[in-house]
């Protein structure tokens, strides 16, 4: 069998190509291109074709230039151990190579997984509506601001966010509101938590959205969510909470503390560290369902009166509503949502709760161990932490970060004398080794 | 040539595959503080009681049960690996398997906040992919950050806005042809622009008179897909570019149809100033049932300083990140959908110049061949990688449902609206002549069938025709909302 061209994934033999061209009535493939001479291109990109084996080796060598490190990095992106079941099942080609479920009769499997994903978020948040899905926590925050703008459009333009907010998240939010009349302001934090009195002073009737996080970007569990919700509610502003599904397995249900919207990155389930790739979680109250951005899967019936699933309320979406859509999102993170759903199901309720508990326990153990050393105070905030915390260092933070990197540990410098550490899925051995490295750096 | 999707039912045939919550549900009680555990279903959490929830109720199944559950669900999912998927404008093509392994390398799984000199491999791959995409698009600079095609459009709009504002030029309108992808309209609106809809000409292409009327000093950009959604090449592209540039506007290229042009023409050479690449389409990274994708944005030199930060460039240490001088900032919390970008790099490297050009040649060949075989009318041509047939007196949505019974996925239906009862068909380069013949048989069998047969389809799929109205009227969006 002779193939007629360069793509290894085009199945045509020369004979088939000839037969097809003859059927169409042209002599050559080039005759099918209706491109004016002035804009034609000769195909010379200067990219050599390599064999599969060569490409693999090349990428392996290239990525091998990343240092081998133990990462204590977090601040919105977390390395999580993902059970083999998730990789194995999510890579089944039917899940991996399907498209958006526009023909639900042949997409019942994926639709059911997404329905189950929505259901688990409904249990974790206590809210009735979860979409499936958005890009990441930052874009979900941007979408929440435009949601607030639609719902509270007559009352004002101010969006309030915490002073402790990852700069990338704030940057995305600023871009999402660039085309609206909204403007974003920071409110102060006090010892890692929201300064509730200061927030109360700032909130007036022209505020459409108050956003808070728990755990915060510094790993602090917020202690007065109900007060914050009350302040927002008192001025008819939406209250959005940023969190993640693992912490929600133990923290009070957001709906019970007054959250109107819950967003965050759900890739803490299902995705290992993937250079910031995420899964935007978004849940809200049923009364806002027609203003929700993104895809929703609903239960319905088929012609045989059996339960069936389908994308629903599509008239909100860009492919039908065009410029009046609730969002421009089309391709989302469906496959990552599938991975999160399988991971959550694998853990089950007890596994999820234990994962959160272990994270609290190990964070506090590491902070205690570091606090015993001279030259470092940990944690800076006398609060409850999940996953991560900030420590104060006598030496400049950047020097400590560099010295630790030389020993194979990656940590954040968050201020001149502050480093941030995330225990996420590190083993006890990793953490012991890290404490020894910090000891050497500080005392050496 | 027919097929049956897998189905598992209860004795009463009420459910194909029970929900996890129907198989098992467990409640774990959560004790805050130092309370003693009551029993196995209680977990102590070292937090004050007022911060913790009382309980969590979710399914708790064994791994073997889960393996079967998800395997069965996969079998109820149609995919490119199970059959042809000629969804126009979606470019559903085969995803090479080795790219998954490449993206799964442990060195790919790092945290984005590492110091630059500790992640030289990742930066190098980003740099090389920026370069490949720039060459393929005829662009000068590329940002990999946008996490999807629509995010790329939004980024392009923000870049255009920043460019005009930097020149002290406040413009309010974006022109978009009626037949464009809905995301174009939504992205322009999200960027704060008024959308000016451009009616098509009689030949299905941009009507230059209508364009002339639409253009003004308010025009920030024209968003164009070329070939357009009818598969037609905009032959007047050089004149269109000149007209847009004459009023000070920018020309935006929607990369959804780039599969038709690889190695034959480049957006940059046609006069486009900004473009996005749908790497999950053109460069065969899996669509994942609706994502993740990636929508890198390329621009000409003059606009490079406005691209999102960070970008990657060469430096003394090897590679470093930098913030373009007047960067619009961030469009994703980190650096976009990295693993998808790794797959795109591997795909491009595998194909190279010859493979990329051949992919387009075969995509166009396949569309033209299939277009010849189908008996439905194809009102516009000559077309490239996709064509729009009309179902005529039949309802295109019904035609699609009936095609499912013939074992194939149907085309995109009822869009673009220029063609009545549109069947927008894109076979891509990966289908063999035999498969195209099978697809044509499905098209041509349905054209013979009466309304009653169409209305009762599909019959051989995992679910029969699903009631969309009931789904929207009686919203049930979680298992908590099911009342059975």
UniProtKB/TrEMBL annotation, chain A:
Keyword Oxidoreductase in record: yes
InterPro entries given in the database record: GcvPA (IPR023010), GDC-P_N (IPR049315), PyrdxlP-dep_Trfase (IPR015424), PyrdxlP-dep_Trfase_major (IPR015421), PyrdxlP-dep_Trfase_small (IPR015422)
MF term (GO), any: glycine dehydrogenase (decarboxylating) activity
BP term (GO), one: nucleoside metabolic process
Gene3D superfamilies: Aspartate Aminotransferase, domain 1, Type I PLP-dependent aspartate aminotransferase-like (Major domain)
Residue ranges of domain Glycine cleavage system P-protein N-terminal in the record: 9-429
PANTHER family: GLYCINE CLEAVAGE SYSTEM P-PROTEIN, GLYCINE DEHYDROGENASE (DECARBOXYLATING)
Protein name as it appears in the record: Glycine cleavage system protein P (Pyridoxal-binding), N-terminal domain
Organism: Natranaeroarchaeum sulfidigenes
Automatic annotation (TrEMBL), chain B:
Residues of the Aminotransferase class V domain: 158-288
Annotated Gene Ontology cellular component terms: cytosol; glycine cleavage complex
Cited InterPro entries: Aminotrans_V_dom, GDC-P_C, GDC_P, PyrdxlP-dep_Trfase, PyrdxlP-dep_Trfase_major, PyrdxlP-dep_Trfase_small
Keywords: Oxidoreductase, Pyridoxal phosphate
Catalytic reactions of this protein: N(6)-[(R)-lipoyl]-L-lysyl-[glycine-cleavage complex H protein] + glycine + H(+) = N(6)-[(R)-S(8)-aminomethyldihydrolipoyl]-L-lysyl-[glycine-cleavage complex H protein] + CO2
Keyword Oxidoreductase applies: yes
Signal peptide: none
Enzyme Commission designation: 1.4.4.2
GO MF annotation, one: pyridoxal phosphate binding
Entry's Gene Ontology BP terms: glycine decarboxylation via glycine cleavage system
Record bears the keyword Ribonucleoprotein: no
Pfam families assigned: Aminotran_5, GcvP2_C
Residues covered by region (Disordered): 17-45
Residue ranges constituting the Glycine dehydrogenase C-terminal domain according to the UniProt record: 359-454
PANTHER family the UniProt entry points to: GLYCINE DEHYDROGENASE (DECARBOXYLATING), MITOCHONDRIAL (PTHR11773:SF1), GLYCINE DEHYDROGENASE, DECARBOXYLATING (PTHR11773)
Protein name: glycine dehydrogenase (aminomethyl-transferring)
Gene behind the chain: gcvP2
């Amino acid at each position: 069998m002779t193939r007629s061209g360069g793509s290894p994934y085009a199945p045509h033999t020369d004979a088939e190509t000839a037969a097809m061209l003859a059927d169409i009535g042209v002599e050559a493939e080039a005759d099918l291109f209706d491109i004016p001479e002035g804009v034609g291109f000769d195909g010379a990109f200067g990219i050599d074709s390599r064999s599969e084996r060569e490409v693999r080796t090349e990428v392996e060598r290239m990525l091998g230039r990343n240092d081998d490190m133990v990462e204590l990095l977090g601040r919105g992106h977390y390395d999580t151990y993902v059970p083999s079941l998730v990789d194995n099942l999510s890579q089944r080609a039917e899940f991996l190579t399907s498209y958006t479920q526009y023909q639900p009769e042949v997409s019942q499997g994926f639709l059911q997984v997404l329905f189950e994903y929505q259901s688990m978020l409904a249990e974790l948040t206590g809210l009735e509506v979860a979409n499936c899905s958005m890009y990441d926590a930052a874009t979900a925050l941007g979408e929440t601001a435009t949601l607030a703008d639609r719902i509270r459009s007559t009352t004002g333009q101010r969006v309030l966010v915490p002073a402790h907010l990852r700069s990338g998240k704030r940057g995305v939010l600023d871009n999402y509101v660039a085309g609206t009349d909204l403007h974003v302001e920071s409110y102060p934090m006090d010892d890692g938590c929201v300064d509730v009195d200061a927030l109360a002073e700032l909130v007036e009737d022209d505020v459409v959205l108050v956003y808070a996080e728990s755990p915060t970007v510094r790993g602090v569990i917020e202690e007065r969510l109900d007060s914050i919700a009350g302040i927002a509610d008192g001025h008819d502003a939406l209250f959005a909470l940023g969190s993640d599904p693992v912490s929600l397995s133990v923290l009070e249900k957001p709906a019970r503390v007054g959250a109107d919207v819950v967003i965050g990155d759900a890739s803490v389930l299902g995705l290992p560290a993937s250079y910031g790739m995420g899964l935007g979680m978004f849940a809200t109250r049923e009364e806002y369902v027609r203003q929700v951005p993104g895809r929703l899967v609903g239960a319905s019936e088929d012609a045989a009166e059996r339960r069936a699933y389908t994308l629903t309320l599509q008239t909100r979406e860009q492919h039908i509503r065009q410029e009046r859509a609730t969002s421009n999102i089309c391709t989302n993170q469906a496959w990552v949502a599938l991975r999160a759903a399988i991971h959550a199901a694998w853990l089950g309720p007890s596994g999820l709760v234990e994962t959160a508990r272990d994270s609290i326990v190990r964070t506090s153990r590491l902070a205690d161990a570091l606090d015993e050393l001279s030259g470092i105070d940990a944690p800076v905030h006398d609060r409850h932490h999940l996953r991560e915390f900030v420590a104060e260092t006598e030496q400049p933070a950047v020097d400590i970060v560099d010295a630790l990197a030389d020993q194979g540990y990656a940590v954040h410098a968050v201020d001149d004398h502050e480093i941030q550490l995330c225990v996420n899925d590190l083993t006890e051995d990793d953490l012991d080794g890290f404490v020894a490295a910090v000891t050497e750096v500080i005392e050496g | 040539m027919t097929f049956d999707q897998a189905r598992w039912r209860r004795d009463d045939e009420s459910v194909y595959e029970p929900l996890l919550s129907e198989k098992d549900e467990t409640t774990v009680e959560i004790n805050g503080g130092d309370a003693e555990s009551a029993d196995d279903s209680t977990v102590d959490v070292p937090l004050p009681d007022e911060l913790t929830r009382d309980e969590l109720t979710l399914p708790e199944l064994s791994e073997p049960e889960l393996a079967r559950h998800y395997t069965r669900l996969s079998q109820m999912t149609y995919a490119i690996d199970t059959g042809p998927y000629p969804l126009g404008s979606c470019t559903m093509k085969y995803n090479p398997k080795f790219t998954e392994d490449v993206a799964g390398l442990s060195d790919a799984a790092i945290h984005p906040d590492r110091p630059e000199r500790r992640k030289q491999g990742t930066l190098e791959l980003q740099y090389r992919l920026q370069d490949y995409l720039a060459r393929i698009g005829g662009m000068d600079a590329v940002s990999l950050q946008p996490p999807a095609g629509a995010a790329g459009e939004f980024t392009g709009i923000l870049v255009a806005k920043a460019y005009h504002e930097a020149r002290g030029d406040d413009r309010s309108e974006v022109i978009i042809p009626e037949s464009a992808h809905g995301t174009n309209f939504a992205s322009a609106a999200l960027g704060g622009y008024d959308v000016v809809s451009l009616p098509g000409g009689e030949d299905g292409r941009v009507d230059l008179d209508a364009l002339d009327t639409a253009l003004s000093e308010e025009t920030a950009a024209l968003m164009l897909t070329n070939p357009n959604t009818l598969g037609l090449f905009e032959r007047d592209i050089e004149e269109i570019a000149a007209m847009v540039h004459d009023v000070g506007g920018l020309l935006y290229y929607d990369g959804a149809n780039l599969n038709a042009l690889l190695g034959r023409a480049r957006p940059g050479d046609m006069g486009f100033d900004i473009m996005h690449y749908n790497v999950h389409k053109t460069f065969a990274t899996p669509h994942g049932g609706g994502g993740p994708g990636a929508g890198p944005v390329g621009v000409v030199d003059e606009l490079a300083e406005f691209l999102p930060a960070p970008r990657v460039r060469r430096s003394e240490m090897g590679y470093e990140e930098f913030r373009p001088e007047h960067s619009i900032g961030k469009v994703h919390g980190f650096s976009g959908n990295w693993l998808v970008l790794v797959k795109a790099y591997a795909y491009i490297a595998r194909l190279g110049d010859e493979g990329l050009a051949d992919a387009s040649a075969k995509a166009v060949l396949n569309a033209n061949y299939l277009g010849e075989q189908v008996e439905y009318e194809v009102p516009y041509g000559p077309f490239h990688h996709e064509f729009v047939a009309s179902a005529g007196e039949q309802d295109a949505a019904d035609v699609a449902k009936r095609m499912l019974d013939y074992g194939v996925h149907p085309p995109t239906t009822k869009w673009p609206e220029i063609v009545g009862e549109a069947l927008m068909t894109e076979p891509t380069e990966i289908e063999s002549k035999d498969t195209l013949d099978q697809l044509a048989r499905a098209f041509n069998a349905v054209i013979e069938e009466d309304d009653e047969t169409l209305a009762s389809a599909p019959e051989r799929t995992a679910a029969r025709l699903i009631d969309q109205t009931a789904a929207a009227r009686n919203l049930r969006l979680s298992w908590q909302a099911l009342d059975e």
